[in-house]
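Renewal narrative, Specific Aim 1. Our central claim is that a sequence can be written position by position from structural information alone. The example that follows is taken directly from our test logs and has not been curated for this report. It begins with the structure tokens describing the chain, in the order in which they were read.
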């Protein structure tokens, strides 16, 4: 597994400035937590900053759950890069905890952060580190993801 992550690390760096605006098909549930505003399917475009330059993205996001639980799936594609992030988050007060995975590069880890009306801020750790900020209303959403590969000091070539 570490060998796979070490090989994928340079590719993970190319997802280093993902920003997108999504149009909403929101859930009709009454809002009881910041998670409830996100529920439903969102779609839009954005950009990714690669080592070789900036590229346009097409993104879809799906949020399920509500209340104190949020399931998240974000898929973005550019001409040369794909990103598929999934997470399961729990909310207690304003504190978020949970786990995440990036399926294209087979990376995973834990997530923690805060939620307020209109904003979720998450720090991720594991095979990569980074942050994710989601600013949202009932009709729009912007997602900013910044990642960095974790050095693999224990990895050895075979």
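The sequence written for that structure reads:
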């Amino acid at each position: 597994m570490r060998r796979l992550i070490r090989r994928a690390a340079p590719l993970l760096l190319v997802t280093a400035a993902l920003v997108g605006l999504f149009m909403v098909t929101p859930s009709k549930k009454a809002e009881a937590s910041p998670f409830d505003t996100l529920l439903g399917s969102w779609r839009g475009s954005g950009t990714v900053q690669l080592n070789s330059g900036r590229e346009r993205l097409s993104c879809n996001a799906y949020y399920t759950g509500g209340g104190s639980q949020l399931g998240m799936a974000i898929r973005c594609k550019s001409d040369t890069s794909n990103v598929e992030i999934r997470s399961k988050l729990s909310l207690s007060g304003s504190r978020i905890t949970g786990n995440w995975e990036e399926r294209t590069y087979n990376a995973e880890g834990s997530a923690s952060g805060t939620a307020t009306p209109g904003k979720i801020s998450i720090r991720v750790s594991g095979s990569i580190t980074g942050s994710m900020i989601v600013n949202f209303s009932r009709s729009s959403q912007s997602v900013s993801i910044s990642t960095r590969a974790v050095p693999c000091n224990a990895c050895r070539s075979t």
